[in-house]
Design a protein that fits this description.
heterodimer, A: globular, B: alpha+beta, 8-stranded antiparallel β-sheet, 5-stranded antiparallel β-sheet, 32% helix, disordered N terminus, hydrolase (chain B), immunity (chain B), cytoplasm (chain B), protease (chain B), Proteasome_bsu_CS (chain B)
Chain lengths: 217, 231
């Protein structure tokens, strides 16, 4: 095999990734894998957390170019904080998604990052927004993203039912990410979870050896 | 500098390719979802029924489950022309081999014939094939010969453009020891999910069950496909 396997040294760091968020009555469950890769060959970090807190009860998941995603996320945190102080109350999830979309759309030719924005606010309760590369925003009951999401479309379409409980959502999210990590070479590591409800946000980490095991075929 | 920028803008407004539909010069492709799984006593195979030339659906009721011998079938994905040509060649070779042997050929033999051709001509071909069938020596077997010409036996295999979307579903739902009916239902559900997400897969779901008794073919029409909730 005569490939030049130094190509990864000049490749940008990418969160080839699997991200997912699902809403239930009372909150949202958000999850991601933990792998950052370069050139699809080298894992530059096996423990990064792609579930970023942008406000007390609003989270976002990053996918695509890690540099772009981090830059946009930091800008959103700053802008959302300012907006929240001006309004004198906690921000709406839709505001966070809107600010995210502003950046993604206005810089759509330079950026290469997709996001999921999810959280809880007093006006509409639990919400999940998909802010895809290019800047389209869609509110959904649940959404998946990143390179690993391709492999789990069938699974989430089959398994999702409206009206699931919090625990069912956590299981749904963990299983989906595990299945994607099993098939996508640029997703892997541990599963990072966050559950956001009216009372606040709670993070969870499921290490590799505690992940569900599916039939090895 | 300014002059060249104006020229570029003009080109982006008027692109000659837009005046000609894309399907007049696109290759016919079975962008597809195909699937096969083994059970105790035989195999179940399935495929969607869409053949596309670019954005046009050339055939919406295609049969991608092609008989190679009495109890050996192949599922075709990739270029329609390439896979038809390969299947015809292997059917001939296997028929001849079977007459020479004076007994039913092995599924492994059929799979190897596909592999030989797909590997030898791997630069020119675009074909992903799943070979499945029943023989007396090893019962039900599924062999996958993806693009490039690898050959590997698997208890369950999916292929084609729509297969990416159902790997997760397949990994989580497949269990050993399923009955023929369970296999048929599993295949129908998987094909339905893939057809829902993949633009190049659709139409009806064609299924076949191959066992010692023979081949039983089924069709699940569009309105009878299993439905799922999705966002």
């Amino acid at each position: 095999m005569s490939s030049n396997n130094n190509e990864w040294r000049s490749a940008a760091v990418s969160t080839g990734t699997t991200i997912i968020a699902v809403r239930y009555d009372g909150g949202v469950v958000i999850g991601s894998d933990s792998r950052a890769s370069m050139g699809g060959e080298y894992v530059s970090s096996r423990v990064i957390n792609k579930v970023v807190q942008v406000h007390d009860k609003i989270f976002c998941c990053m996918s695509g170019s890690l540099a772009d995603a981090q830059a946009v996320t930091n800008a959103v945190i700053h802008k959302l904080n300012f907006h929240s102080m001006q309004m004198g109350e906690p921000p709406l999830v839709q505001s966070a998604a809107s600010i995210m979309r502003e950046f993604c759309y206005n810089h759509r030719d330079e950026l290469s990052a997709g996001f999921i924005v999810a959280g809880w606010d007093r006006k509409k309760g639990a919400q999940v927004f998909d802010v895809s590369m290019g800047g389209m925003v869609v509110e959904q009951e649940f959404t998946i993203g990143g390179s690993g999401s391709t492999y789990i479309y069938g699974y989430v379409d089959a398994k999702f039912k409206p009206g699931m409980t919090r625990q069912q959502c956590v299981t749904f999210t963990t299983n989906a990410i595990t299945l994607a990590m099993d098939r996508d070479n640029v997703s892997g590591g541990v599963v990072h979870l966050a559950v956001v409800t009216e009372s606040g946000a709670e993070r969870q980490l499921i290490p590799g050896n505690k992940l569900p095991v599916f039939q090895r075929i | 500098m300014a002059a060249s920028m104006i020229w570029d803008r003009a080109q982006s407004i008027y692109n000659p390719d837009d005046l000609v539909t894309d399907w007049t010069d696109q290759e016919v492709s079975t962008g597809t979802t195909i699937m096969a799984l083994e059970y105790d006593g035989g195999v179940v195979i399935g495929a969607d029924s869409r053949t596309t030339t670019g954005a046009y659906i050339a055939n919406r009721v295609t049969d991608k489950l092609t008989p190679i011998h009495e109890r050996i079938f192949c599922c075709r994905s990739g270029s329609a022309a390439d896979t038809q040509a390969i299947a015809d060649a292997v059917t001939y070779q296997l028929g001849f081999h079977s007459i020479e042997l004076d007994e039913a050929p092995l599924v492994q033999t059929a799979a190897n014939l596909f592999k030989e051709m797909c590997y030898r001509y791997r630069e020119e071909l675009m074909a992903g094939i799943i070979v499945a069938g029943w023989d007396k020596r090893r019962g039900g077997q599924v062999y996958t010969v993806p693009m490039g010409g690898m050959l590997v036996r698997q208890p369950v295999s999916v292929g084609g453009s729509g297969s990416s979307y159902i790997y997760g579903f397949m990994d989580s739902n497949y269990k050993t020891g399923m009955s023929q009916e369970e296999c048929l239902r599993f295949t129908g559900e998987a094909l339905s999910l893939a057809m829902e997400r993949d633009g190049s897969s659709g139409g009806v779901a064609r299924l076949a069950a191959i066992s010692e008794e023979g081949v039983e073919r089924r069709v699940i029409l569009g309105n009878q496909l299993p439905k799922f909730n999705s966002a």
